[in-house]
Amino acid sequence: MFGNKSIKVKGTDCGFDAFFLAIITSIGGFLFGYDIGQISGVLLYNDFNYRFLWGGTATVKSLLVSFMGVGCLFGSLIGAYTSDFLGRRKSIALGVAVYIAGDIVQVTAKESWIHITTGRFVSGLGMGTLSVGVPMFQAECAPREIRGAVVASYQLLITIGILFGNIVCYNLRGFQNDSYSWRIIIGMGAVFSLPLGLGILFVPESPRWLAGRDNNVIVENDMHEMKEVLSLERQTGRASWFECFFRRAKVPKTRYRTFLGMGIHFLQQWTGINYFFYYGATVFASAKIKDPLMTQLILGSVNVATSFLGVYVVDKLGRRWPLILGAAWQALWLLIFASIGAVSRRDESSTAFGIAMIVAACMFIASFAATWGPIAWVVMGETFALRTRAKQASLATAANWMGNFLIGLLTPHADGAISYSFGFILAGMNLIAAAVVWLFLYESSLLSLENVDIMYSIQDLSPWESAHWVPPGYLTRLTRDEQHFRGVDIKSADLSELTQGTVEMANKDGSVVPDENNVGGPKTEMENKEDKRDMC
Q1: Could you tell me which residues come within 8 angstroms of residue 368 by beta carbon, excluding any fewer than 6 positions away?
Q2: Closest CA to 293 of 43, 116, 33, 59
């Protein structure tokens, strides 16, 4: 679209097309955020309450809010098939169409909470498909120098969507006694989705997906490592769900990476972020805050402002340490929030407690927006092998939506039973999240997706040492040793291990441990070079 126009990032030319792709696809994040932002305010609207929450029970409210998460869970699993079969672009366009259909069902609801809940479920199917397709598409298309920032832009647009939903609800609160108020708010989501549904048709398809479909002409000039890995992966056929949990194709640590991705995304929701954004207005209303919708605006503004920091952090500081420190910081402020809330119940006449709780919530949200918000999506986009990436990404996203569903379902009941003490549980979940990252997540910053596979294949490399690992043939993670690559694209032994399984695992220095079934053993680097010359 932009021809050869580019700008230099970390010494490498990055085309304008990559930035256009980031802007268009990140609208998927805006839609998710907008729903979070608007539902918190709409729940307080008088007409909406009269029509759908007439029973006033926590069960009806929790089902209405959380059933979008159920739809997203199923949509994310469906997204694995549509992303592989239709391609990344068409899968995203399909997700937009389903999302719009769900919004139409919601807007036409009259007085049945089942009707509007069904609409939220259908919208969730579309949103779930988008939440798989968008980060994966971004990770596969973006240059590695800006890959973290591009995928982080998805979370940035989520925060902007939340804030925009808060603003719309705040400005229409004067019409909350009329049904058109909440109908307009919900219907605007369908309008916002159109730029994504149409714009995605003008973005090139993922080169890795095209190469896997033998449509190599478009990606003929891409990196040699990517082309050779894809060539070998095509020979092994398509991956099954079984392979995500059991080692059949001998892709390194497949099951390990599947559960790691699922764990990080489930824990992202259980950091407690949507405790504030789904029910924040209700929670702060119970804390005697006079204008809870204004409080939501404050939280949303903090969320957006610090999300810009997240785009910077993800490429400058890597993945592991921001997640670990972010979870620890979030646990601290959740403890403060819950402690203040528990004390405030003894003196409900004071507004000082409510203000202190808002400050604690802002500090928590600032950390999440800069760390767990964007980086969990970045990790999902770059941790999995291409062969199983779509299915593993869908499982990770499904775990995210399962966590989202449980937060939406349980919060009203927890609020009634233990009130602000729910914050202590969420603080504990943050500490668990920090431990999971420290023990299991490898540092993938500045690595190509193909070299991430090689890193996970190394037997004696621990996650906490992985930040210092450099791929074979590289001087640093950004600088290749051109002499190493002269006459050979990448070590054939490493590539075979990742795709066909003829070689087993690699040592920390890149040397290969032979597969006992490979009688001849792996070839030396010199033999590989000789083979390459014979093929030319």
Answers
A1: 271, 273, 303, 326, 330
A2: 43
Supply 75's token pair: 């949509």
**For residue 424, how far is the Cα from the chain centroid?**
25
Domain map (residue ranges) of the chain = 14-440, 470-535
Q: Looking at the whole model, is its pTM more than 0.90?
A: no
Return d(Cα 132, Cα 112) in angstroms, integer: 31
Block means of pLDDT (10 residues each) for the chain, 536 residues, are 53 60 82 88 89 77 88 91 86 94 95 93 94 81 73 83 91 91 95 90 75 54 52 60 74 89 96 84 69 83 90 86 97 95 75 86 94 91 83 91 90 82 95 97 89 89 93 84 58 43 44 42 43 37
CA 292 to chain centroid, in Å, comes to 29
Specify whether the CB–CB gap between 366 and 330 falls below 8 A.
no
SS3 of residue 15 by DSSP: strand
Distance CA 76, CA 266 (A): 14
Report the half-sphere exposure of 317 (CA within 13 A, side-chain side): 17
Pairing of strands 505-506, 512-513: antiparallel
Options 1.20.1250.20, 2.10.270.10, 3.10.110.10, 1.10.10.10; which CATH number does 14-440 get? 1.20.1250.20
